[in-house]
Amino acid sequence: GAARGSAMRLGTTGKLSSVLLLVLLGSVLCNEGSSTEPSADDPSADDHSSIEAHKGGGVASHVVAPICGAFMVAVILINFFEKCGLSFIPESAVVIVVGMCLGFILLSSSSKHKIWEDEIFGELNATVLNLILLPLIIFESGWSLRTKDFASQFPYILIFAVIGSVISMLTVGSLICATSQYHGLENSRVAFIFAALIAATDPVATLSTYSSLKVEPLLNIMVFGESTINDAVAITLFNVLNDDSIMVGSDGNSPPTGELVLQMTLGVLKQFFGSAGLGLGLGIVYVLVLRFVHMRHSQALEILFIAMSCFLTFAIAEGVCHLSGIMAVLFCSIFMGIYARPHLSREGSMLTTFYIKQCATLADLGVFLLVGINVVNVDSKGLSFSLWVMLFCLVARAVSTFPLGLMANGIKTCHASIQQRRGEEKESHYLSGKHLFMMWHAGLRGAIALVLCLELGDWVDTVASPDTRAMLRNCTFFLIFVFLLVFGGTTEMMLRLLRIPLGKDMPHDYLYTTSILGCTDKVFTTMNERVFEPVLIGDERLDSMVDEAEKDLEVEAVLDHIMNSSGRSLKGYRHLMEPVPDEDETTESE
User: Fold this and answer.
1) Res 330 pLDDT > 50
2) Residue 515 pairs with which residues in a beta bridge?
3) How far is 573 from 563, CA to CA, in rounded Å?
4) Please, which residues bridge with residue 427 across strands?
């Protein structure tokens, strides 16, 4: 009975959340479709009934049906490749190719819905990515973060994420300006804002391969941690450069250099610390609500509350406080991943992690489907500029990764010598040349770069040529596509060629327990024990802290744990999903 109840609650949660997501997506589609309809005063407008039919049936047949059909075809192909053992083909690459096929069909179709037009579809992309897909993707990355290993390498992750992002932006921006005679982009502000957005790495395919092959913890946490934090840095730089109130003076010209640097610095500090502070503040509110409301009796309500918190956080940050919703969601999810779990039931915590992971996977696939649909529209100018930018990104990635790796190893050496004098014997976990090469190899781009590119202001076409925004958008789509196929598809091959340890089941706090911990970790530990745990968790819940290993459980392991806690195994649970025989059949068998 308890096992059947847990399964029913999981099904109820899936249905309710699916309905909520479909309602959000449907309202966006209908609003976009209705915004393009002619008014009643327009003499060329059809009658009221035809307009209403066009809104509903047109969107359903020309938008929803093709997208859902493409998703189903992608799932079938992914399943086929998995059965054939073609693990070198990333799932995201399959979705992009299916999206390209859909894009070619739409491009050659004579009866396209108006929503597929470039301008309208671009705005729809930005709306769906911002309000539906991106909050889920960002929230999952913070919620599932292996906090102990992340904390053990946090100073070194910051070196790559912060300093590396700035180096990458300056390198790409400078190279674009230096080669302007070959691709035509001469405005320095446009060059550097595009360099800022393209600095955000998103190695979804790489991390998926790392997870399936059980790559050693150091490489895994460095790639994951850098991609998580450098998103915040890239977003902050982009928002400042995209803000006319900072970049343009009262006379319409750029302010003096000193004033511009001061305004940019203040803008970066406001965006970063404001968004992070808002995310942490909302995370505290959510955790306190969970502590005093007591939802442990219902896994369905626990999951829904956690899932909806990411959308609320994003909306408050973007719409109310005019800060970065992505950064607010990231810091909120990291905080909740630590302090919200003790207030959930054990089954609820694992089911929440699994559910959010699957929603984020679906959102990621949605992003890559949009990339595939749009990449077929890349023209010759966008293709030419893409080739230049890809070369610049590879150079910038090398310039930022290898020197910073030497810096990180130097700091680890100094730290190790200090600890040895104190008699502490622990590992330093140096970054080898193989590690640094794989970190360079993991410089894929994804949802963040795409969303930021779609948010470029109208000023881009004003200060540069009228079609510059379209060229940058096409370049971003094509770069994501190529990097995913080339680097995402060769991850396993490179890991095996470099003989990086694979397939070992390491403890989820391996780096934390074996590393030399610095002063930052000691400060966080003290604050956690004296402030956060007593206030946000309480003594009655300290024994409910969830093991780090449970953050990575897949559906089979989650269900097996639930069944075992109810005195059943997963094999005994499968009969609940089998059809019940009729009474006549039962009698005949007897």
Assistant:
1) yes
2) 427
3) 7
4) 515
Q: Show the 3-state SS of 256-318.
A: CHHHHHHHHHHHHHHHHHHHHHHHHHHHHHHHHHHHHHCCCCCHHHHHHHHHHHHHHHHHHHH
With contact defined as beta carbons under 8 Å apart, do 9 and 299 qualify?
Answer: yes
8 A C-beta contact, residue 154 and residue 408: no
Phi-psi region of 503 (alpha: psi -120 to 50; beta: other; left: phi over 0): left
In terms of pLDDT, which residue wins out, 9 or 447? Answer: 447
Quickly tell me which residue has 């179709």 as its tokens.
109
Question: Of residues 194 and 537, which shows the higher confidence score?
Answer: 194
pLDDT digits (tens, 9 = 90+) for 529-554: 777 788 788 765 555 555 555 555 55
CA distance 298 to 291: 14
Tell me the pLDDT band of 457, cut-offs 50, 70 and 90. confident
Per-residue pLDDT of 468-513, as tens digits, reads 988 998 899 899 989 988 888 888 889 999 989 887 777 777 777 7
Contacts (Cβ under 8 Å, ≥6 apart) of 169: 192, 195, 196, 199, 234, 237
**What percent of the chain has a predicted confidence (pLDDT) above 70?**
75
Which one-letter amino acid corresponds to residue 117? E
Average pLDDT rounded to a whole number, residues 126-149: 84
Q: Which long-range contacts (CB under 8 A, 24 or more apart) does 454-462 make?
A: 454/122, 454/125, 454/126, 454/129, 455/126, 455/238, 455/242, 456/193, 456/242, 457/242, 457/244, 459/244, 460/190, 460/193
CB 71 within 8 A of CB 94: no
> Encoding tokens for residue 391?
């070369």
What does the pLDDT look like over 335-362, one tens digit per residue?
Answer: 998 888 888 888 888 888 888 988 888 8
- Inter-residue contact 207 to 223 (CB < 8 Å): yes
Q: Give phi and psi for 30, each to the nearest 5.
A: -65, -40
Mention every residue, 6+ apart, whose C-beta is less than 8 A from residue 279: 313, 317, 327, 328, 329, 330, 331, 332, 335
Nearest to 137 by CA among 288, 330, 324, 300: 330
For residue 543, the 8-state DSSP code is: G
Distance of CA 529 to the CA centre of its chain: 30
Cα–Cα distance measured from residue 244 to residue 516, given in angstroms and rounded to the nearest whole number: 45
- Res 551: pLDDT: 56
